[in-house]
């Protein structure tokens, strides 16, 4: 059972939902300890997807767009907080839930259209509605598919269990 604070109950915030931090920001514990919450990363974000989250810590909101992996957030940070650009930005990968329109036998391909690395593809079926096939090995975790989904069936989750 999720425990809610009084404030969390009134604002709808649930403690169990871990925010997605900016790319190259490392572990959650290290990020929280070292981030000064200055807002420099948010101001520098080309896609305007870095917002102030719980406690003022930056979080990613893919409903606003995608991450272009420009590294502007890391360059703008006054702390030595971000890992080098040649390392993996994060371990996020796409996850599809049951409200996906194709799982409801409705033809929709908005996620495929927005997925540049083609991690999301549709395979023809006998019943006429193509089935969504996800290749997580191709997914960069950019979030382009999230904003374009008309029913919010897509999310990004850590592939390393964190």
From TrEMBL:
Protein name: Ferredoxin-type protein NapF
Gene Ontology terms for molecular function: 4 iron, 4 sulfur cluster binding; metal ion binding
Domain 4Fe-4S ferredoxin-type, chain residue ranges per copy: 25-54, 56-87, 130-159
Pfam families reported for this sequence: Fer4_7 (PF12838)
Binding site for [4Fe-4S] cluster 2: 67, 70, 73, 77
Origin: domain of life: Bacteria
Function statement: Could be involved in the maturation of NapA, the catalytic subunit of the periplasmic nitrate reductase, before its export into the periplasm.
PANTHER family: ADENYLYLSULFATE REDUCTASE, BETA SUBUNIT, FERREDOXIN III
Keywords: 4Fe-4S, Cytoplasm, Iron, Iron-sulfur, Metal-binding, Repeat
Cofactor field: [4Fe-4S] cluster
Originating organism: Jejubacter calystegiae
CDD domains given in the database record: NapF_like
HAMAP family, per database record: NapF
Subcellular location field: Cytoplasm
Record's keyword annotation contains Iron-sulfur: yes
NCBIfam families reported in the protein's UniProt record: napF
Alphabetized SUPFAM superfamilies for the sequence: 4Fe-4S ferredoxins (SSF54862)
Cellular component terms (Gene Ontology): cytoplasm
Family: Belongs to the NapF family.
């Amino acid at each position: 059972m999720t425990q809610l604070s009084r404030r969390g109950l009134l604002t709808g915030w649930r403690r169990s939902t871990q925010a997605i931090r900016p790319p190259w920001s490392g572990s959650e514990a290290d990020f929280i300890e070292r981030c000064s919450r200055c807002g420099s990363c948010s101001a520098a974000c080309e896609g305007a997807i870095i917002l102030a989250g719980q406690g003022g810590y930056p979080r990613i909101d893919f409903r606003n767009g995608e991450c272009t992996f420009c590294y502007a957030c890391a360059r703008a940070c006054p702390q030595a907080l971000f890992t080098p650009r040649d390392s993996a930005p994060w371990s996020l990968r796409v996850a599809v839930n049951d409200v996906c329109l194709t799982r409801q036998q409705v033809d929709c391909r908005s996620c495929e259209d927005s997925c540049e690395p083609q991690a999301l593809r549709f395979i023809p079926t006998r019943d006429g509605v193509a089935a969504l096939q996800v290749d997580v090995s191709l997914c960069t975790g950019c979030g382009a598919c999230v904003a374009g989904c008309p029913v919010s069936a897509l999310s990004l989750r850590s592939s390393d269990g964190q």
